[in-house]
Amino acid sequence: ISSRVPSELGINLRLILVSGKTKEFLFSPNDSASDIAKHVYDNWPMDWEEEQVSSPNILRLIYQGRFLHGNVTLGALKLPFGKTTVMHLVARETLPEPNSQGQRNREKTGESNCCVIL
């Protein structure tokens, strides 16, 4: 846990890796997703050694099923102070486009969700 923020003024994040390993970190509401990725990379937990990545630039946070873009701050997400918020931490080179992948795939194949009239 970081000592740079008093716990009552900070946001406690429990980060979960794909492997299921977890670790808690304390951040300021002004910290962005890329600040968090860099902090975690620089303070990589000993028991996460097998999941070590080559660069903080490929670490991505997922909150409520959505990837957080690098400039999004914890304050902008309106996360509660003094409580633990769970996020997933994954290694991924690029983020998906904002509009859904499934929709684009359907357009390419010509499928639709429409009904068939007999």
Automatic annotation (TrEMBL):
Keywords: Cell membrane, Lipoprotein, Membrane, Methylation, Palmitate, Prenylation. Signal peptide: none annotated. It is found in: Cell membrane. The keyword Membrane applies. The keyword Transmembrane helix does not apply. It holds the Pfam family Rad60-SLD_2. Residues 11-89 form the Ubiquitin-like domain. It is a lipid-anchor. SUPFAM superfamilies: Ubiquitin-like (SSF54236). It comes from the Eukaryota. GO terms for cellular component: plasma membrane. This is Ubiquitin-like protein. The gene is UBL3.
